[in-house]
Amino acid sequence: MPQKSLKKNAAFNFFKAFLTFAFPIITFPYASRVLLPQGIGKVTFANSIVSYFSIIANFGISDYAARGASRMRDDTFALNKFCKEILLLNSFTTAIAYILLFITWCTTQKLHDYSILIAFSSLNLLSNTIGMAWLYVSQEEFQYLTISSFFFHVISIIFLFVFVKTTDDVVYYMLFGIIIAVGPNIYNLFNIKKKINLFQKCTLEIKKHIKPTSVFFAMSVAASIYIMLDTVMLGFLTNDAEVGYYTAATKINKMVAGIFAAVTGVLLPRLTYYVEKKENERIQSLVEKSFSITILLVLPATAGLFLLANPLVLLFSGANYAPAIVPMKIMTPVIIMIAIASFTGTQLLPALGKEKISLYSYIIGATVNSTFNFIFIPKLGAAGAGIATVIAESLVTFTQTIYCFKMFNSKSLVHTILRNMAHAIIGTVIMSLCVLCILFFTTNTILQIALSIITGITVYAIFLHLIQNMFFRNICSAIKQKLPK
Question: What is the model's pTM?
Answer without folding.
Answer: 0.63
